[in-house]
């Protein structure tokens, strides 16, 4: 793992109102100096007030915070952008099927010392992060394997100690270690068929998360503002109308998903991609097909095409709604 100083860094208190525009009088610790593990600041990022307050509670009061919401809503980015403004080192781990218990805990490895091969214990990400002033973020938390989840459960207590059995060593968490997670579900499994591979989580473990924040889609006005910030070339009167129509299509797909008409929906991330691709190809309809329509089930494409027609008053050719052959 990349090195982060285990010493307690210099800190100062910052105002949540001044830094994030929250209407609360909360002081949050921030590090004086940045290092290479602090995320880069995105100056146009827009913070959700409730989620921001929940995440700040994690940083200021050492609460274990899970951010839950549909894909593309910026859950992980939200944590990173708060860490960036606090100069707080942040490490993200995706709990996909390839992450094992040994990756988290550590394992013996052969190393060369003074020209000799010896076996040495290499710490995994959990003991490494625990000993450092770092925010550890577990992405796709509800996709973790059961053996991996029980490793994480050991550090969910605020003063949780971590025992390395192979080393006969108990690790005490660094005063500025913080733990976060993001998930698409609330630990109940793949109820709507949208997130294959997610697990039903142990309720005793879910109960150990002090705060569960929800980050879902913004209002149409706020979403359009985010897209404009990402694609400033469209910040003209025609461009704003174009983005408004794009956001309307996205909203219709989300309503279609809620009513069971569609099995997929358009996230804010996809709307941004669509706007960017429209600049690349110079064709809004082509960019729509390449950014979203081609990801949909063939049987559902006429419904999506209808949403497009309603928003743009323009039809997609029938030949574009079927797979070749």
UniProtKB/TrEMBL annotation:
Keywords for the protein's UniProt record, in alphabetical order: ATP-binding, Nucleotide-binding
GO molecular function: ATP binding; ATP hydrolysis activity
Annotated ranges, domain Cobaltochelatase subunit CobS N-terminal: 14-38
The organism's place on the tree of life at top rank: Bacteria
Keyword check for Nucleus: no
Protein's GO biological process: ribosomal large subunit assembly
Domain named ATPase dynein-related AAA: residues: 65-191
Pfam family, one: AAA_5
Gene Ontology CC terms, in alphabetical order: preribosome, large subunit precursor
Protein name from the UniProt record: Cobaltochelatase CobS subunit
Species per Swiss-Prot/TrEMBL record: Paralcaligenes ureilyticus
């Amino acid at each position: 793992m990349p090195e982060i100083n285990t010493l307690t860094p210099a800190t100062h208190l910052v105002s949540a109102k001044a830094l994030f525009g929250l209407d609360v009088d909360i002081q949050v610790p921030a590090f004086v100096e940045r290092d290479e593990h602090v995320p880069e600041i995105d100056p146009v990022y827009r913070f959700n007030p409730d989620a921001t307050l929940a995440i700040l509670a994690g940083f200021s009061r050492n609460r274990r915070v899970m951010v839950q919401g549909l894909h593309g809503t910026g859950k992980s980015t939200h944590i990173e952008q708060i860490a960036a403004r606090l100069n707080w080192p942040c490490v993200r781990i995706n709990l996909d099927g390839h992450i094992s218990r040994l990756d988290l805990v550590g394992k013996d490895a052969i190393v060369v010392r003074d020209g000799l091969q010896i076996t040495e214990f290499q710490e995994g990400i959990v003991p490494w992060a625990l000993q450092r002033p770092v925010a550890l973020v577990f992405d796709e938390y509800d996709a973790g394997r059961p053996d991996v989840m029980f490793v994480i459960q050991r550090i969910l207590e605020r003063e949780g100690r971590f025992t390395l059995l192979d080393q006969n060593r108990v690790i005490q968490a660094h005063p500025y270690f913080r733990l976060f997670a993001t998930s698409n579900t609330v630990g109940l499994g793949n109820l709507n068929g949208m997130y294959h591979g997610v697990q039903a989580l142990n309720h005793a473990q879910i109960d150990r998360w002090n705060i569960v924040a929800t980050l879902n889609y913004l209002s149409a006005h706020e979403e359009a503002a985010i897209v404009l910030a990402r694609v400033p070339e469209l910040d003209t009167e025609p461009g704003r109308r174009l983005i408004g129509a794009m956001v309307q299509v996205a909203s219709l797909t989300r309503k279609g998903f809620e009513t069971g008409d569609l099995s997929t929906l358009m996230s804010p991330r996809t709307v941004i991609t669509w706007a960017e691709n429209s600049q690349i190809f110079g064709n809004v309809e082509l960019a729509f097909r390449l950014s979203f329509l081609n990801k949909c089930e063939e049987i559902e494409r006429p419904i999506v095409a209808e949403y497009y027609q309603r928003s743009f008053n323009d039809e997609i050719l029938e030949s574009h709604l079927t797979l070749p052959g």
